């Protein structure tokens, strides 16, 4: 069975061809990142225009790379939320037109759930329930997946962790997106040079990242020109703090739920320290840990195809009234 995945929820335009839910034949991603860089963040209008101009090119390339034709597609799976409305509508309209023309099934997919399901391509779950950690530019969520349903356990009360990386990078005078730059810079810095305290929150499964951003701002002001020599130490200390909080959240959630399987997803799952900290935690607590391969950490259509394929296996189908849901939550709640 051939599934076409389409992802246009933010700044990436991506099409993927997945065979039988476990083999990626192609996964083409066209990013509009460079066009947003002068603005230091995503400009929705630029993102949707990029999607519109590139969707057909990316689709044709995905077919070509996979060695399949438009007539081989059995299922069309597309992100319908959460994300930027203009960008989402480009993917949804393209998916609908194609599914209608080819008379094949259409499935709308939740981008957040797909980030977790990216882990399961060719690597099935060992148990039916798992703890999910979604860490991206727009979300930081801890969820429990049990009996086919998602339940939110905790999450950020303010900024997402990726957003904190991006803002802190801006404060230190680095480029956009800040996550990969800070990650690289942190490798040669002293993690213990600056200490950041974890904000006190009502729930031990919640996170807050806006305070640390303000703390970094004050440090940058105090350091003045010295920032140049301390940028690596600041990046390392910031990363050490936020990754520690995330890993601690996972540890507590596993203890509370007694779940032994953890799936991680989203752009920040590319972070080197997060990957190593979670591996250490998994060894210590005897957890089975799923972290996506680097190519599947960022937004991509292979994960959308996988999520749609699984939904199809469970008898789910969307109608042609499928529309964009910019604020869609995990589990559809
Ligand atoms: O999932 P994603 O591609 O897009 C959203 O759905 O938001 O995540 C993008 C976010 C950005 O904030 C970026 O700075 C962050 O992921 N990111 C990282 C790393 N690579 C990307 N954050 C920390 N370390 C990284 N290596
Ligand atoms: Zn994402």
3D structure, described in words:
The chain has 2 domains: 2-118 and 296-332, Nucleotidyltransferase, domain 5 (2-Layer Sandwich), CATH 3.30.420.40; 128-259, ATPase, nucleotide binding domain (Nucleotidyltransferase, domain 5). Helix 9 (272-285) links the parallel strand 9 (261-265) and strand 10. It is built from 10 helices and 10 strands. A 5-stranded mixed beta sheet has the order 3-2-1-4-5, with helices on both faces. Strands 8-7-6-9-10 form a 5-stranded mixed beta sheet, with helices on both faces. Helix content is 44%, strand content 19%. The chain has helices at 33-36, 44-66, 85-102, 111-117, 161-172, 178-186, 210-223, 227-257, 272-285, 301-313; strands at residues 2-7, 12-19, 23-31, 75-81, 105-110, 130-135, 140-146, 149-155, 261-265, 288-290. Helix 5 (161-172) packs antiparallel against helix 8 (227-257), helix 6 crosses helix 8 and helix 8 (227-257) packs parallel to helix 9. The chain has 333 residues and is of the alpha/beta class. Bound molecules: 5'-O-[(R)-(carboxyoxy)(hydroxy)phosphoryl]adenosine (KG4) and zinc ion (ZN). Residues 111, 115, 136, 266-267, 299 line the site of zinc ion (ZN).
Give descriptors for this structure.
globular; alpha/beta; 19% strand; binds 5'-O-[(R)-(carboxyoxy)(hydroxy)phosphoryl]adenosine; Nucleotidyltransferase, domain 5; five-stranded mixed β-sheet; single chain; 44% helix; binds zinc ion; 2 domains; 333 residues
């Amino acid at each position: 069975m051939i599934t076409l995945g389409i992802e246009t929820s933010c700044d990436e335009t991506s099409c993927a061809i997945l065979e039988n839910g476990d083999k990626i034949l192609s996964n083409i991603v066209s990013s509009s990142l460079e066009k947003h860089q002068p603005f230091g963040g995503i400009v929705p209008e630029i993102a949707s225009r990029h999607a519109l101009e590139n969707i057909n090119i990316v689709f044709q390339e995905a077919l070509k790379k996979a060695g399949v034709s438009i007539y081989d597609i059995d299922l069309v799976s597309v992100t319908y939320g959460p994300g930027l409305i203009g960008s989402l509508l480009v993917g949804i309209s393209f998916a609908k037109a194609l599914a209608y023309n080819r008379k094949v099934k259409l499935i709308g997919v939740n981008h957040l759930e797909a980030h977790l399901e990216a882990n399961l391509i060719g690597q099935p779950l060992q148990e039916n329930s798992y703890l999910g950690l979604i860490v991206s530019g727009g979300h930081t969520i801890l969820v429990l997946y049990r009996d086919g349903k998602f339940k939110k356990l905790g999450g950020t009360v303010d900024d997402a962790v990726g957003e904190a990386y991006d803002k802190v990078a801006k404060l230190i005078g680095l480029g956009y997106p800040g996550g990969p730059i800070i990650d690289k810079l942190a490798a040669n810095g002293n993690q213990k040079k600056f200490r950041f305290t974890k904000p006190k929150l009502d729930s031990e499964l919640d996170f807050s990242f806006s305070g640390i951003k303000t703390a970094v701002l004050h440090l940058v002001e105090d350091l003045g020109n010295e920032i140049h020599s301390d940028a690596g130490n600041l990046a390392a200390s910031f990363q050490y703090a936020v990754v520690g909080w995330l890993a601690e959240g996972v540890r507590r959630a596993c203890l509370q739920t007694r779940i032994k399987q953890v799936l991680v997803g989203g752009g920040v799952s590319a972070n080197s320290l997060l990957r190593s900290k979670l591996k250490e935690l998994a060894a210590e607590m005897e957890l089975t840990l799923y972290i996506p391969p680097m190519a599947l950490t960022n937004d991509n259509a292979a994960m959308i195809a996988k999520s749609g394929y699984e939904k199809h296996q469970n008898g789910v189908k969307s109608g042609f009234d499928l529309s964009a849901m910019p604020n869609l939550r995990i589990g559809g709640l």
